[in-house]
Amino acid sequence: MSLKDLAFVHLLTELTHYARESQSGTVLPRTLVYIEKMEVAVIPDIVFVKRPRSGIIQKNRICGVPDLVVEIVSHPSHRDKLLGKKKDTYARCEVPEYWVADPVEKAIRKYVLNEGAYQEMEKSRLFPDLQVQLLDSEKG
Amino acid sequence: MEMIPKAEPQKIPFQVFEKSIPNEGKWELIDGELLFSDEEMRKVILMLVGQIGLRKLINILPNESRNELERLLRDES
Lengths: 140, 77
Hints:
The structure holds 2 protein chains of 2 kinds.
Chain A: H1 3-22, E1 25-29, E2 32-35, E3 40-42, E4 46-50, E5 61-63, E6 68-72, H2 76-83, H3 85-92, E7 97-102, E8 107-114, E9 117-121, H4 134-139
Helix pairs in contact in A: 2-3
Chain B: H1 14-20, E1 29-30, E2 33-34, H2 38-52, H3 54-60, H4 63-76
Antiparallel strand pairs in B: 1-2
């Protein structure tokens, strides 16, 4: 399994467990997200939709803006894409939180939307108590 | 290693297939544009055209596009 796949499984497990325990919403892996008014159709690695907004989850896609998008870096040029065009797009679509997990740097950058722009934060607003370390998943 | 499209269809070697899958196999659209880099786009187009062959590509193209292609090729030479 690649570093990216290991990070993906680890993050998906942790987020799903947290969301289930707190009954805060739904975590979905690699689902088509279609935001019609912004002409955007993307397939993020992981998305989270808060419970009151679960109506945007449809049979094989999400029609609307998820509350959290998580993307995982697979190689250096992919990092540029995630921190460039994709980050700009998610901010424009007003995705409240965007995480970029980098299994090589063992880091998760958490961006929270603030007045239309992402601000890097230490803690997530949606998952404030969640402690995830990519290093542990690789050892496991 | 990459495909060089010829008139007739060709098989895709695994090494080409592996290196030509764009954007981790995800087809994503932002502002009406596929989220592929120029290099990813070049590789995937060469692979697809190589697979079907130039003859089939010309057959697939609508008449208007064929005429445009003909004109562009003429201008190039």
